Amino acid sequence: MPKFKPILSFVLWLALFYGLLITPWPGMKRTYAGYFQSLGNILFARHDGPRRTRFQPLDNRDRAWPDNFDTAILIGNRYALNDQGKPKVFLLAVDAWQMGWTPTAFLVALVLATPISWQRRLWSLLLSLLCVHSFILLTVGISIWNESTRISLVTLTPFWKAIANQVEDLALDPVGPGFFAAALIWILVSFRRQDFTCLPPD
Q: What is the pLDDT of residues 140-175, one digit of tens each?
């Protein structure tokens, strides 16, 4: 039983940290959505050339999307006009909390619950946040690129469009890829080879 105590302690701390982080405290979802939109505009917004991309709060008064969706990614092509003679625009609606904060909270909880020194935990946390943000931004970029086909910014054959749709669906899956990426990042940044040589014998 003693050899299972570190594992049990880790699991309990993980559940506590993740529970605290994932709880939608008053105003937290709105705050994170604002951060997500600001970061998206810094990295993806375009106002020159044919492409126009902008992140903004989602206006969901007509209930066209699920209630948890909070962010609109507007993708426009100023050189392609619709029937009204205006530039074509496609609106990609996403749930910033599910897409960004859920895997981030899981990764932070993993790092905080890991039984290593606090100095190592802090460095691991900084590097983990950088890595998980890169993963989240990659999924956003994949979605923007694939949906750009709707307004003639990107042209794909039916075969490659089907592949791109599958990749986007996988990237936007609310559970699998985000949690897998968080766990992989945690292992890579939090552990050293010697940590595995210090495991208690069976």
A: 998 999 999 989 888 888 888 888 888 888 777 766
Among candidate residues 95, 131, 96, the one with its CA nearest the CA of residue 110: 131
Strand ranges, E, within 13-169 = 51-57, 71-81, 87-94
pTM: 0.86
Residue 202 in domain: no
With CA atoms as reference, report the closest residue to 161 among 148, 171, 174. Answer: 148
Q: How many domains does the chain have?
A: 1
Longest CA pairwise span in the chain (Å): 73
The angle, 0 to 180 degrees and rounded to 10, between the axes of the packed helices 118-147 and 102-113 is 160
* 158: its two tokens: 């039916």
Instruction: Determine, yes or no, domain membership for 167.
Output: yes
For residue 131 the two structure tokens come to 């890595």
Give CA–CA dist 19/97, Å, rounded: 15
Nearest-angstrom CA–CA distance, 18 and 42: 28
- Indicate the Cα dihedral angle 122, 123, 125, 128, nearest 10°: 180
Domain that holds residue 26: 2-197
Residue 64 within any structural domain of the chain: yes
Q: Residue 98: CB partners within 8 Å, gap ≥ 6?
A: 68, 174
- Residue 31's pLDDT band (cuts 50, 70, 90): very high
